[in-house]
## 1
Amino acid sequence: MATASTLPISNTSSESQPPIATPAFRAFLARLNSSVRNGLAQRRPWLELIDRSAFNRPDTIAEAASRIRKNFSYFRVNYIFLISLSLAFSLLSHPFSLLVLLSLLAAWLFLYLFRPSDQPVVVGGRTFSDREILGILVVSTIVVVFLTSVGSLLISALLVGLAVVCTHGAFRMPEDLFLDEQEPITTGFMSFLGGAASSAAAAAAPAVATRV
């Protein structure tokens, strides 16, 4: 009597996790959330930002530049929020540009930075190496930022936000602000921006190191 052939059973529990469920991606989200919370904790009251009694026209360009530096140090988180609001408004008013940027960001996150090393990218039966994926992503980023309207949209929105910030900083008198003279003017601002960047780099470093 012939014995029945044994069917192979694949162990689905040993399959690699999708990129969105990897520990590196969860660590990235946790670090980013912590960095944003710490940054928002440093924001100044909005009523202090728009105090009408503290506005006065500067007498010279040098005085305006000094005010901008001091106000930028004190209201740095508020200013970052205003610039981000300008960028968000521009992108929301141009849904196609927003979709392109989100697609590009998702491609970087899930095809390279947080993709498990044991999950190759296969398109049309062809397996792409990590170097090929990186090259495609770099070229795509250059095309999107410099050769489409997306780049000009981001630059114009950034310039509008900077114009608002510089105008406020030049006319807002900083004499009533409690500035730490021992701290360099740009330290807090750069550390706030660097916090999110370093958090993202630290979370993505293990995944990227395996591809080098």
## 2
Amino acid sequence: MAGALAFRCLYRARPAPHNPHVDRLWAPRRGHRLSPVDDELYQRTHISLLQREGHQTMYIDSYNSRGFTVNGNRVLGPCALLPHSVVQWNVGSHQDITEESLSLFWMLEPRIEIVVVGTGNKTERLCSQILRAMRQRGIAVEVQDTPNACATFNFLCHEGRVTGAVLIPPPGETSLTFLGQAAK
């Protein structure tokens, strides 16, 4: 108790500044928390975005025997759908699908989680060596007929998954227009 009284007396005995217009040499220390009064000490930050980058998701609007409509763009023949682009795919049928024709999916960054393969009117089996090579690279492969592959690809993209697709148009007069396309 006596020590606290001694400190209090020393604190009061501190000399006053000689000139009242001169700033103090010491400043009161602030804790780590700000009080409402401190808002006056700081300027507010204003951020202007020059450009918004829309992460446009790929969706298959429709398909027919000649090709696909992806995000409103027509693609003729077989195609490979990547997370943000569409490329022509140089295969004629499911028998032409090789490890080399799927190699673009393991070269991409960010890594593709799953590749949906549309083999035409009916589901065809792919060579087990191709499936093993994709699995070794950490990419799942889902082989379906093209109508179901289109629906699966749209569903996975809607979920936000990093997915790709390789699609062969179904032969004949088969065609489908999804609801979003029919409303336009």
